[in-house]
Design goal:
- There is one protein chain.
- The protein is an all-alpha fold.
- It has one domain: Growth Hormone, Chain: A.
- The protein has 20 helices and two strands.
- Helix 8 crosses helix 18.
């Protein structure tokens, strides 16, 4: 009998459950890549929506006039060609992020009461439509600010379906044992989506910026079809082994009992009973889980810093390095490359130390002075900017990635829930929704402060970073008082 080929041997060495886990990991990764891919174009196109007239040659002005027959301004795309363009562009960011923040609180609650596959698919279809809608403004020569604001608000609401759904799905499939590492790797979809979004939008930004939105819109719409065809919400739906407490017990991964956390009682109407006997936790009940409030407020300021970079970094690079919109967009992807490294590192460290808050605290503490150094060094040349983008990306996105993934999953399967895993979507939505308030404020404040100098923007980011650390101090102190083999969270 002939020996099995190496490839077949590798395939058969994995169990059916492991293949389903790997498939779910890759699928949810790609689904959320498409979400972030569709968010990135606005930051790349900003440099095209407003141009400095003094930098345009007579030939370029002639080309611009041919491209935009009904747009008489040669300083960009009306109405963003005015002197207050930074405030107008900041309004676009604020419209999207404010709608995202408000919608997120509702999204988690709705998502726990609907099949995830249907809910996520519908959200992806809507997001694809509204992303492309912004680009239609180019092809139909629309110069009404209200049109672009409405497109941003609608897209922000549609995109709230994504995060609670994918985190709940991945949390259902993977136990807590190495959750930090697994979700650190998985959370790189944020940076991968930003990078792909930058490259796709940058390809058309200087020639036909409308396609910078239409193409990502088509991509997320197509991925919505893939979601409907293939997403499996829970292991039991495919007759696979559950990854609840039984799964972690089998792997010897359940943490030992300690006195660092006390289970909460979820009686007295905190949980609403559904018809099938399972509980859907209430909003107030989710807030009572130890750590939810602190991590939510920490994420508010951490996400403020991250999204300010996401929406304003290309324009900052354009002004400082004097690059065109495409080159600035390509260079800004280094921040996301650093974010991938930071997210994975944060996951590995927190798994090893079993201390999520302390890991976030260390990175936030280092990030504050690093942001100041970046503001000074980025003006010294291209090479210095490259190095600092990687470092800042790792330190800024590391805590943000850890809180929105492993921490949210830990809290959503907290021991105080007495075995109820249906709180995961609500807890995730509360944490990310609160963080999205900061994500809305950051770009808005950047738009208001940048006319007085980019240094003021960086001072604002440093203060926000310090505030994020401040809200974690109680949890850090609690972790440090516990034994090394104990953890702040208890999984049911």
């Amino acid at each position: 009998m002939a020996e099995l080929p190496p490839g077949i041997y590798v395939i058969t060495s994995f169990t059916r459950d492991q293949w389903y886990k790997a498939f779910t990991f890759v699928l949810t990764f790609m689904l959320y890549v498409s979400f972030h891919l569709s968010r990135k174009p606005i930051s790349i196109v900003k440099g095209e929506l407003h141009k400095h007239c003094s930098t345009l040659s007579a030939e370029n002005v002639h080309i611009q006039s041919l491209k935009k027959l009904f747009n008489e301004s040669h300083c960009g795309w009306e109405p963003f060609d005015k002197n207050n363009y930074k405030q107008l562009l900041g309004t676009l960011d604020y419209s999207f992020l404010c709608a995202y923040a408000v919608g997120m609180y509702l999204s988690g609650i709705i998502g726990e009461r609907l099949p995830i596959r249907y809910y996520l698919t519908g959200g992806m279809f809507a997001s694809g439509l509204f992303t492309a809608m912004f680009g239609f403004g180019y092809f139909y020569n629309i110069h009404n600010l209200s049109f672009y604001i409405i497109a941003q608000i609608a897209n922000g609401l549609a995109q709230t379906t994504g995060w609670p759904s994918v985190v709940t799905c991945i949390g259902n499939w993977f136990g807590k044992g190495r959750r930090g590492l697994i979700m650190g790797l998985w959370n790189s979809h944020t940076s991968v989506g930003n990078i792909l979004g930058s490259l796709i939008a940058g390809y058309w930004v200087s020639t036909c910026w409308g396609l910078s939105f239409v193409v990502p819109g088509v991509i997320i719409f197509v991925m919505g079809i893939v979601c409907f065809m293939f997403l499996i919400e829970h292991p039991k739906d495919a007759n696979c082994t559950s990854t609840s407490s039984h799964d972690t017990e089998m792997q010897g991964l359940l943490p030992v009992k300690d006195n660092c956390t006390k289970p909460l009682s979820l009686d007295n109407g905190v949980c609403d009973r559904s018809e099938n006997g399972k509980s859907a936790i209430s909003f107030s009940g989710a807030l009572r889980i130890p750590g939810v409030v602190e991590f939510s407020l920490c994420l508010l300021f951490a996400k403020l810093v991250s999204y300010t970079f996401l929406f304003w970094l290309p324009l900052y690079i354009t002004n400082v390095e004097h690059l065109d919109a495409k080159k600035a967009g390509d260079l800004s992807t280094l921040f996301d490359v650093g974010g991938i490294i930071g997210g994975i590192l944060a996951g590995i460290i927190s798994d090893r130390l079993k201390k999520r808050a302390s890991t976030c605290g260390i990175m936030l503490l280092i990030a504050a002075p690093t942001l100041y150094v970046f503001s000074a060094i980025s003006k010294m040349g291209f090479e210095a900017t490259v190095v600092m983008l990687l470092i800042c990306g790792a330190l800024v996105n590391g805590p943000y990635a850890l809180i929105t993934t492993a921490v949210s999953a830990d809290l959503g399967t907290h021991k105080s829930l007495q075995g109820n895993a249906r709180a995961l979507s609500t807890v995730t939505a509360i944490i990310d929704g609160t963080g999205s308030v900061g994500a809305a404020l950051g770009p808005l404040l950047a738009g208001l402060l940048s006319p007085s100098g980019w240094n003021n923007v960086f001072y604002m980011l440093i203060v926000a970073d310090a505030c994020a650390l401040l809200f974690l101090l109680r949890l850090i102190r609690k972790e440090l008082q516990c034994r090394m083999d104990q953890t702040l969270f208890k999984e049911h």
